[in-house]
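#onboarding

Welcome to the new folks! Below is a worked example of what a typical request in this channel looks like: someone posts a single protein sequence, and someone else replies with the predicted structure as tokens. Don't worry about understanding the tokens yet, we'll cover that in week two.

Example request:
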Amino acid sequence: MAVALAATGPATAAGGSTGAQLEKSSAPRAQLASTCTPGARACPIRISFARGAYSGQRSSHLLGIRSQRWFVVHARAGQAMIVIVEGRGPTRGVVSFPNGRSSGQPGGRVFDAVVPATGDYRIRVTESPMGEAWSGRVDVVVVIY
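Example response:
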């Protein structure tokens, strides 16, 4: 399935910092950043939107059936949100809401609803356990309107 949506602005590290800003920070903070692997649960990959855009997209890689990657996007209560997960093989996506609830399903359009709370929505992406094992790129596209 090909998805063509609005392009996003320059990518930033999780938390919104650029690499140059991380180098200027204090030693303990820089050390913490170096031990945080983007896409891990503790360091989700932030999906941001270019000014005026309705969509954002980021990618990572899955390395086998036990592999998982985490993404995060901010939304306001009452906005409609669509989350699409596409990979080289079968995928699964689960969206965790700021209020503790979650929703997910096999890859493709894993979420399509009005969001109940304002805050960060975490998206866990894995290979689908129902398909053949694979390794490769996975894309997450989020549309919010």
